[in-house]
Amino acid sequence: MAITKNVSSIDTSDKPYSVSTVTSKDGTIIGYRQLGHGPGLILVQGAMGSAQNFSDLAKALSETFTVYVPDRRGRGMSPCLYRKDHTIQRDVEDLEAILSKTNAHFVFGLSSGAIISLQASTILPSIHKVAAYEPPFFVDGLPIALLERYEKEVTRGRIAAALTAAGKAVEVRPIPWFMPDWLLTFFMNRILVSQDKQPAGEYLPLRELTVTLQYDFRIVTEMHGTLEHWRDVRADVLLLGGGRSPAYLKTDLDAVEKVLPSVRRVTFPDLDHSASWNYDPEQNPTGKPELVAKELRKFFA
């Protein structure tokens, strides 16, 4: 079931980007930002983020490329009810719709967005190059119990508890693992309440983003154990990762690097999983989008 939203009514008169939409195969409206000039490059967001999180990265790339920054389905400009039968094919169709409309051939994906981008490149010949930042394949095993706990909590509407389970599942830093769940959930709830009182501007609310994790966890679970499948990727691939990211993400990069037919690897020793997001001294002090943009410009040149 699709939900429409009047994205064209968003006031962008004082913004460095324009806003447009495209209709995916199942009727879902996908909204995206556009800025810059040059060959088309689509930025595919991962979990817990929206187009706004890629603002600085898009700006850094806009002098070289026409950059398209969609909100993935279920969030922001692309609202859609989550369905239990959701598969990665829907996300590929969303990306395909933007590729078809824009005639872009380059894709950058972060985290679960990297999995979507790689999967799309096995199906869509219009994708010539893919840059993938730390796709979470969990080659050493999925955190099944935590994912199931997240599902139960989000179904009950217990968003703080769901956020605690999700954070532990993906080893979000700097969550203190020694703290009991009830105490972590208490602090998560305080963050949620604080944000309810003082919204974070153009960033999507944490409550909304926590619910959208259903899409991301469904993708990760569906594509788990399919390592040999990535031999079918025909696009040139750039694998990116941070030296300060959780260890399992490096393991995943090592594994997928061995099977991709055309690949090179870049590691940022001092960066982590959120390096491509906007720098924010409070929310994301480890963001270094200009460093990521530098490597992307070289790869997509």
What key attributes describe this structure?
8 strands, 301 residues, Rossmann fold, eight-stranded mixed sheet, alpha/beta, single chain
Topology:
Blueprint: E1 18-23, E2 29-36, E3 40-44, H1 55-61, E4 66-70, H2 88-102, E5 106-110, H3 112-123, E6 129-133, H4 144-155, H5 159-170, H6 181-197, H7 206-223, E7 236-242, H8 247-257, E8 263-268, H9 289-300
Parallel strand pairs: 3-4, 3-5, 5-6, 6-7, 7-8
Antiparallel strand pairs: 1-2, 2-4
Word description of this protein:
This protein has 301 residues and is of the alpha/beta class. Helices cover 39% and strands 16% of the residues. The protein has 2 domains: 7-140 and 225-300, Alpha/Beta hydrolase fold, catalytic domain (Rossmann fold), CATH 3.40.50; 144-212, no CATH class. α2 (88-102) crosses α3 (112-123) and α5 crosses α7. The termini are far apart. The model has no long low-confidence stretch (mean pLDDT 93).
